[in-house]
Amino acid sequence: MEELAEVYARALFEAADEADKLDTVRDQLGEFADALSESRDLQVFFFSPYFSTDEKVEGLEKVVTDADEIVANFLALLVEKHRMPAVFRIRDRFNRMWQEENKVLPVQITSAIELDKSTVSGIGDRIGEKTGRKVELSSSVDPDILGGIVLQVGNNVLDASIRNRLENLRKQVARGAA
Q1: pTM score, two decimals?
Q2: Average pLDDT over residues 91-115
Q3: Which of 90, 29, 85, 94 lies closest to 56, judged by CA?
C-alpha cells in the first residue's frame, strides 16, 4: 500500500509542479485530508463499499467546492479507483516531496519544561545554518523526559533527555550484574 501512495503522490506532485501550483495543491489536499480525518460521517461515506462510485463523486463535488481543478480531479480519480483510504498516506508523501523541493527541514524540539522562544529559535537557526535548509520548527513539552531535550531533525532523533540517560545507565547496570 505504501508504494501505491508514493505513485499517486508523485503523479499529483508532478501535475502540480507543471502547473506551478505546488503550494495550492499541498494546502487544499491537506484541508481535505484534515476534514476527512475529523469527520466519521465523511470517512464512512468515502471509504464504504455501500455507496456507489457515482454517489461518491457527486458527494465529492458537494464537499469540495472551491478547490483547484488539479485537486478536484485528483480526488475524483481516487474515488473512481477506490483509493480514497490512501489519501492520508498520499498527503504524507506529497508533503515530503514538497519539503524536499522547497528545502524545508522539519525540526521538533521536546523539552520537560516550556522553553523560551529565543532558545527555540536559536536551536532552529543553528540547525538551519548547519544544513543549509529552511527549518520548519515546532516545540512541545513532555514532563516525562525529566530534563534536557529530544531533538527530531527530519528522520534523525537526538535524545539528550535525562530519561534517556537514566535508561542507558539502567541497562549498563543490568549488564554489569549479569
Answers
A1: 0.70
A2: 90
A3: 85
